[in-house]
Amino acid sequence: MAAPSAPPRRIVIENAAIATVDADDTEYATGHLVIAGERIESLGAGPAPGGLADVDRRIDATGHLVTPGLVNTHHHFYQWLTRGLATDHNLFDWLVALYPTWARIDEPMVRTAAEASLAMMARGGVTTAMDHHYIHPRGTGDLSGAIIGAARDLGVRFTLARGSMDRGERDGGLPPDFAVETTEGALAATEETVRRHHDASFGAMTQVAVAPCSPFSISTELLREGAALGRRLGVRMHTHGSETVEEEKFCHELFGMGPTDYFESTGFLGADVWMAHCVHMNDTDLAVFARTGTGVAHCPSSNARLAAGIARVPDMLEAGVPVGLGVDGTASNESGELHTELRNALLVGRLGPRREAALTVRQALRLGTHGGARVLGRADALGSLEPGKLADLVLWKLDGLGHSSIADPVAALVLGPPAPVTASFVHGRQIVENGRLLTADEDRIARDARTEARRLARIAGRD
């Protein structure tokens, strides 16, 4: 007879403002939250219930706001090694300028870039990250394994969108020919990555999505067969879509239709799909996304950096389109942080036609938490603070000078200066304390990143 399992150990957080981001946007001016093992056991107003057993820690969170952990829905980790380049380019010119360098990456570079990207996000409140890695130069090692290993070691919940490209320069695409895969090779490698690494369980720390790169770097066959593969394997699918006017023109010239119609013609729309950017969408496009349940990763800083435009996020939300936030690669968002996207989503949105009625501070917080969890297909487990959900949460310090006169803690978090992270928990395990990672040596990661960035520059002939 098996021995009974030990009861879960508890962590009690008290005296905090709490924004649950549940369906009713429940908030507590002063409340408590109890973690039991890897899940949230209870939360509410006032102090925690008396008599709780097996309490390992009690945290006095006076002066803090507790929120769900931030969820990043779009990124390219490898770009950490090429920050600050091509700073005055639009998307197509930026890609042409950087692809020759990106095509020289190898496994040590990718591992280091993943560590740096994950560390920067985690210390700023991200508990669930994703990486859309689509460059797989021949003979450069196990790039997917390197990225997944970095997320595992840092303790961040993670989705790898196993990307691919099969349209090189000779076929009218943008990437160099030696940086693309064959269609058959890309599909086979993607399937192998899913079978080796995807965990479909409620508490999964690692999941994998099928993710052909973009209409201008993949064949129609790869997109269509990628959709079929994702559905056969029961995983989600991801790609870039409707990012720029140049992409719209490219799709009309090559396929005789706009991006949304093209994706629908290949089966690459649906409740199991999310797209990055979606800046240039008309009313018909939005209706198609709403009808099919296709999600959007909104990347306001990157869209501005590359002069792509302002996405119609308020219209998407009104139509019922799932929307989350994305950092995007750090070659087009050098900060590498998601919490800044809460503010930028609100401010950039108010430059659009709705002006001050575009987004509220609570809508911005929802985009970065529950919205992201919904886009990644994990809203049952993540994205809000509710009993039974996974204990992925952040304690933001709001009692310092920078937030001292903002009475509304959610407004302080979204509109104020970047709030220090006193503690961040993933799966009930603390990974950040007082703004520093507990799971990795940030100084070592920074040194490695400088070394690998210089090595890449030498190999690519940029120094």
Features:
alpha/beta, globular, 17 strands, 14 helices, single chain, 9-stranded mixed β-sheet, 35% helix, 4-stranded parallel β-sheet, 463 residues
Report the strand count.
17
Terminal-residue CA separation: 66 Å
Sheet of most strands:
9 strands, mixed
Count of separate DSSP helical elements: 14
Q: How confident overall, as mean pLDDT?
A: 96
| Poorly predicted residue ranges | none
Radius of gyration: 22 Å
Give me the secondary-structure category: alpha/beta
Helix content: 25-40%
* Residue share in β-strands: 15-25%
Globular, elongated, flat, extended or rod-shaped: what is the shape?
globular
Characterise the protein shown here.
- With 463 residues, the protein is of the alpha/beta class.
- It has 14 helices and 17 strands.
- The longest helix is centred in the C-terminal third of the chain and has 18 residues, at 442-459.
- The radius of gyration is 22 Å and the shape is globular.
- The mean pLDDT is 96.
Short description:
The chain has helices at 91-102, 107-122, 143-154, 183-197, 220-233, 245-255, 259-265, 283-292, 300-305, 313-319, 339-349, 361-375, 409-415, 442-459, and strands at 10-19, 27-36, 39-45, 55-60, 64-68, 70-71, 126-133, 157-164, 206-212, 237-241, 273-277, 295-298, 323-325, 393-397, 421-426, 429-433, 436-437. The protein has 463 residues and is an alpha/beta fold.
Itemize the secondary structure elements and their pairings:
Layout (H helix, E strand, L loop, with lengths): L9 E10 L7 E10 L2 E7 L9 E6 L3 E5 L1 E2 L19 H12 L4 H16 L3 E8 L9 H12 L2 E8 L18 H15 L8 E7 L7 H14 L3 E5 L3 H11 L3 H7 L7 E5 L5 H10 L2 E4 L1 H6 L7 H7 L3 E3 L13 H11 L11 H15 L17 E5 L11 H7 L5 E6 L2 E5 L2 E2 L4 H18 L4
Parallel strand pairs: 1-4, 1-5, 6-7, 7-8, 8-9, 10-11, 11-12, 12-13
Antiparallel strand pairs: 1-2, 2-3, 5-14, 14-15, 15-16, 16-17
